Amino acid sequence: MRKVILAIDEGTTNVKSLLLDQQGNVIGKGSVPLSISFPSAGLVEQDPLEMIEKMKDSIALAVGSVVCAEGSIDSAEGSNEVAIEAVAISNQRESVVLWERSTGKPLTQVMSWQCRRSESLCETLRKDDAFSRYVQKSTGLTLDPMFPATKVSMALQQIPDGHARAERGEICVGTINSWMVWNMTNNVFITDASNASRTQLFNIDEQVWDTAILDRLGISAATLPDVVPSSHVVGLSREFGVLKSGIPIASQIGDSHAALYGHGGYQKGVVKATYGTGSSVMAAMPKLPTIRSEISTTIAWDDATLFYGLEGNITHTGSAIDWVRRMLGVEDMEAMCELAAQASADQSVFFVPALSGLGAPYWDLEATGIFCGLKSATERADMARSAFESVLFQVADVFHVIAEELPEKIEYLSVDGGPTLNDWLMQAQADLLGVTIRRGDVAEVSAMGAGYLAGLAIGWWQTTEELAQLEGQATLFTPRQEKQAYWQARYAQWALAVKKCRLAQ
């Protein structure tokens, strides 16, 4: 029997499951897409019941796969010899769902982190400067619709008798990890410190649900889960698709935090960037850092030692490229890359993808997306290239703020996510930042990070030093000195484009 940890990464667009052995090798994997809906302007939702079924499907695919001699993964009859020793969970953060405690029936759809339904409520709350400052000091987060707090407040008002039912403890409010654990166990209702810190309801210094914020938003503490460490056995599985009963659920952690852990972010000088629909630039620190408005302060993880994190959340990166692709009528992402490669390196177009305002480091809900520098000679290729460059520049905006706060020099930027497979993009990022980019050989780094935490919880590994020895191969992109002036000049033009974007309100 091959002993493995089942690591599930529930993201925005798909559910991935990995089988991780004690040497840190991925010996099986499965991925299933998730649907997402846009009921009206600003609303972004997902089906919580579909999410659970797709989890079961991805687990079945992973369990039904084995590593062949050539290193590829195929279905094989011998796969039933895998013994799952623990389950690890990483999840899309900030998305939230409410359900009935007695039946487990969802009372809302999953309200996505992308959803802007509470924008007007956030605007109203921000007018109270004292409360706005208190929220940031307590939670490390700027009042913004991305975070669950204001969406939960609105949802309780819309559920019949919602507040009274909440006070009686009849309603559960959970981020996606809580929903997953509830359904995989006999209704265990918990969350971990990393996910709790993203709700904008959790005091990250005192590590308790903040009663002042709960009272202001009309959210009863009775609706909220118990908070446990990220590396911790919270219960045993029930029969869940092909997953047998009695298996320890041994870790849960927000996906961006999990990626940082998977990159070895518990070591000094490591900063990671996850490139996806949106992007996250994050670094871990052993002590609570300075709270500042440009970036979020959060709890990175609790693996017996609590680590805080500095993070900048960028709303539109991969989604910005895809938006421009659709606007230009380009068939797929491969064709988009080919089109962008046809542009002149000195083309004048800059795209600021403030398609739902700007996230870190600006936090400007009123900003609107713009193309700057359009000329009669502008081609579709120029606009395509500007979409890719907008990713580079937005990551740089956040990277520089984080670099100011870290006590040690940043040795390299570890990267993951689909866009990182674009070698041109990664080399350009290195040239712009002047820092080596490190791209690991395992794409599913969030699942790996969660798997490492589960392994610590069940005693597979004893220390993070042991985990560091498992580090796999990586591709390095070293900054080229001769490109520095070029990229700094373009970065200055980007800064001007951002100013124009924010003035166009």
Largest sheet: 7 strands, mixed
CATH architecture label of the largest domain: 2-Layer Sandwich
CATH superfamily of the largest domain: ATPase, nucleotide binding domain
| Physical arrangement of strands within the biggest beta sheet | 19-20-18-17-23-24-25
Mean pLDDT over all positions = 90
Helix content: 25-40%
Please name the CATH topology of the largest domain.
Nucleotidyltransferase, domain 5
Number of domains: 3
Number of H/I helices: 16
Q: How big a fraction of the residues is strand?
A: 15-25%
Radius of gyration based on Cα positions: 22 Å
Q: What is the total tally of β strands? A: 25
Tell me the overall shape: globular
Find the structural class using helix and strand composition. Answer: alpha+beta
Provide the low-confidence segments as ranges.
67-79
According to CATH, what is the class of the largest domain? Alpha Beta
Kindly report how far apart the N and C termini lie. 62 Å
